[in-house]
Design goal:
The protein is an alpha+beta fold. 27% of the residues lie in helices and 28% in strands.
Length: 304
């Protein structure tokens, strides 16, 4: 169960957690068209700080634009609402979930004049793939389910219904004794995890899937910038799962997953089966940044 907080922001008003409900005929519930974001707020010595809030809000609005959803608030209004939701709940560290959904009105595939609703919830959420996973790495299974074709589901949008694909892959991986799934694209190249971007290290070069069949990850972008600042060569290129098998290091990135090392894929150990040197370095820098310990990247934090 998600630990309750006091208030959820719904269409401009704060509602008690237990009363934050929607009608059973809410359009998004039936047809899956809604957009959302996952954002983290971290505790720092100077108080709570939200990581790359502006970039997350921009992606939320881009997702809505792609799918012809007109959010009835400005980016500034949503930003202020997110900040105020964290404040009202008096929470030092949390996961933040803004969601834009098509409300109750007409049914059928064309929602006509249905209202566009917005809600923002926050709650405490630790390491998505476990504290042990952050320290020692996780086991990953290549899924039998593939990422949808780029002209079937437009990959720049973070859309509610897309995560059916992710759920199938995740359930399969867990049922087979793994921690997470790795999905391939429609041409058989590595795409991403069920909710994460993937990186590998081979011969000192950090590689990640290009922005083709994957979500444009904000943590992914952060790690690329950090690596380049640290003098690590970064290449955005396609690679196959057998290159993952023979990579020296590998890790997932994402708002929920943060920077999680991968110790094995499909029963093959990655490197020596432990988080590698580059992975640990980037992970350490990342956590210093989000906790306000690295002033070089202070602009990535929105102080509460």
């Amino acid at each position: 169960m998600i630990p309750k907080t006091k208030k959820i922001w719904m269409d401009g008003k704060f509602v008690d957690w237990d009363n934050a409900n929607v009608h059973i005929l809410t359009h998004t519930l039936h047809y899956g068209l809604g957009v959302f974001e996952g954002i983290r707020c971290y505790e720092t010595k100077e108080g709570p700080a939200i990581f790359r809030l502006d970039e997350h809000i921009e992606r939320l609005f881009n997702s809505a634009h792609i799918f012809l959803i007109e959010i009835p608030y400005s980016q500034k209004e949503i930003k202020n609402a997110i900040i105020e939701t964290v404040r009202v709940n008096k929470i030092k560290e949390c996961y933040i979930r803004p969601i834009v959904y098509i409300g109750y009105g007409a049914m059928g595939l064309y929602p006509k004049e249905n209202p566009i609703n917005v809600a923002i919830a926050v709650w405490s959420w630790g390491a998505y793939l476990g504290d042990k996973g952050l320290k020692e790495g996780i086991g990953v299974k290549t899924s039998s389910f593939i990422r949808n074709h780029v002209n079937a589901n437009m990959t720049r949008g973070k859309v509610c219904g897309y995560y059916i694909n992710s759920q199938l892959a995740k359930k399969e991986a867990i049922s087979c004794g793994f921690d997470e799934a790795l999905l391939l694209d429609t041409e058989g190249y590595v795409s991403e995890g069920s909710g994460e971007n993937i990186f590998i290290v081979r011969n000192g070069i950090l590689k990640t899937t290009p922005l083709t069949s994957i979500l444009e990850g904000i943590t992914r972008n952060s790690i690329i910038e950090i690596a380049q600042d640290e003098g690590v060569k970064v290449s955005e290129e396609r690679f196959t799962r057998d290159e993952v098998y023979i990579s020296d290091e590998s890790f997932f990135t994402g708002t929920a997953a943060e920077v999680t090392p991968i110790r094995e894929v499909d029963g093959r150990s990655i490197g020596n089966g432990k988080p590698g040197k580059i992975t640990k370095k980037l992970q350490s820098i990342f956590f210093d940044i989000v906790r306000g310990k690295n002033k070089k990247y202070e602009s990535w934090l929105t102080r509460i």
